[in-house]
Amino acid sequence: MSKNGHNGKILWIDLSTQSIREQVLPESDYKKFLGGYGMASKIIFENQPARLPHLHPDNIMAITSGLLTNGRAAFNGRWMIAGRSPLTGTWGDANCGGDFAPAIKSSGYDGFYFTGKAKEPVYVYINNEGVTFNSAMELWGVKDAVETEAYLKQVYGDECKVVAIGSGGENLSLISGVVNAKGRLAGRSGFGALMGSKNLKAVCAMGTVEVNVHNADAVWQSTSKLLVDLVENLNDFGKVMKNCGTAGTLTDSAQSGDSPVKNWQGVGSEDFPPEMSNKINAFEVTKFEVGKYACYGCPFGCGGLCHIPGKDLLKETHRPEYETLCGFGAQLLNDDMESIFVVNELCNRAGIDTISCATTVNWAFEAYDRGYLTKEITGGLELTWGNAKALVQLVEQMVSNTGFGSKLKDGLKQALINLNLPQSGFAAMHVHGQELPMHDSRFKDGGIGLGIGYEVEPTPGRHTSTFSGIDEYIEAEQKIEAQHKTLNKFFGKLKFQAKYKLADQADSSDLGESLKNASCAEDIINALGLCNFGFYLGPMVPFVDWINATAGTYLSLADCLLIGQRIKTVRHSFNIREGIDVASTRMPERARGNPALKSGPNAYSPNVLIWDDAKSAYFKSMGWDASTAKPLAETLDYLELDFVKHQLYEQKQTATI
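and the corresponding structure tokens:
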């Protein structure tokens, strides 16, 4: 029988020996880390040997659901992969929707932890009755990720859920991800390469284990109120999401300055004006829809299944999301919708992260424009801005590891090495190896939190590493606490702060607290298995009530943020242990607004030191050394992280290999 919100155990899978081991986890750990992704931070830190090569077989790959998965909360269908990133060498994780999260828990476990390397390609089938290892020789190099899922569903039935790699993972592309639900990707951090290095083609999961919830009626009561609120008080963003998904934000983002344009050197209103952006926005995308798509546990359904007549590749395809439309559209000055659909499907089937792929391609187009790359180097590809044909050809080469594309298939950092170009001076828009997404850190409205997240997040260069909206939740709880005239013992440490803009002073403790709260809140969202979009639709998400009713706890928001701080500190300490100079990790100067753009909404000259001041304020608020970013010993004591303190302060760190 499962416990409150979790099964109480994980499954270790050794691919080298084709053996398994169940591990029962103490209830005290669930109270400290909630479950799923939070628990993975502790388990990997304690079990992963330090400083292994990026694709060494002993690297752990965890696939987890969340505390609220399979319960009665809404937006509870996210699953995550975690471990050391093959792309950056840092702590890595990738978040995904689709339909795999519930299968993890239904199989009787809270997560799968893979080690070792199979002698030849295999796939693993898991349910609550057992585990089997099966040859994938007939799939490897033959079937892409979507075809692999379809094949395995024929073998085990539609109730079986599948995550798989395509050619990207098989070719050990460092920008490859893991695919489920016919093209939904856990794309960031390069885990497709880690899975491929283990000769693991796919994981199949299903089962009949039901999750016990402490008070299911209370969870449903909170969910019901939220669902009514979503109907009555949906904000403008929510209305766009309901109709068009993230695709509907393209034009507004391009014109407002949220979207970087022309590899972060252009201006949307000038280089990609509405007459161009509207060709790949909103209804121009949704007109190809043949049905809506919703991830597991989602009452909203912002996705879309599309069909483009006359294109065999696009008989059934997921509607491109904003990141893909911006990366292959606005960034490249490309308003050819069909080309974006094609490269999106190519990446989905190969299991290639469209964010990293697009940012890498953007660099190549600028390098061609500036003469660093020539037709001789590109094999005849004319990488001129807006050239849709060349875009498709280049992505085809990247996913197949052929031609000039083979030089780019591992992302920007490796591309510069492959092409014998220096890492600096070529506008390679990545942070510590991970390509930047399609949200501009120079954006005045909230860009400071976004940019700091790019630099300080243990998985660098991600736009989903912070939740600035937590300020509203803190303010609401403070009002409630004031009315009751009682303060939680941790609550005095929380400060409400309005969203900061880049023009604001950034050296105050208030800013540090705001950045800290936003950062820690995101780790809670991930540990619960919730979707970020649910928090941006207008109504406040009752996630604290969901936790308490599910797990039988009595946590306040402040308690939850303390747990988030604990998870974040473990992930961060992983990087410290790996010998990474976290304090020096920074975005390219272009992303910091140095030099400033000459026109457009992001054309201003803020004090460039604002970034370093804000990082220092964040480190201090987290209880880390402001200069080195190493967690203070007293912070680790306060967070009850003895196992981290032992490795950072009491055990001499030496390379394992």
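(Above: one complete record from the training split.) The radius of gyration is 23 Å.
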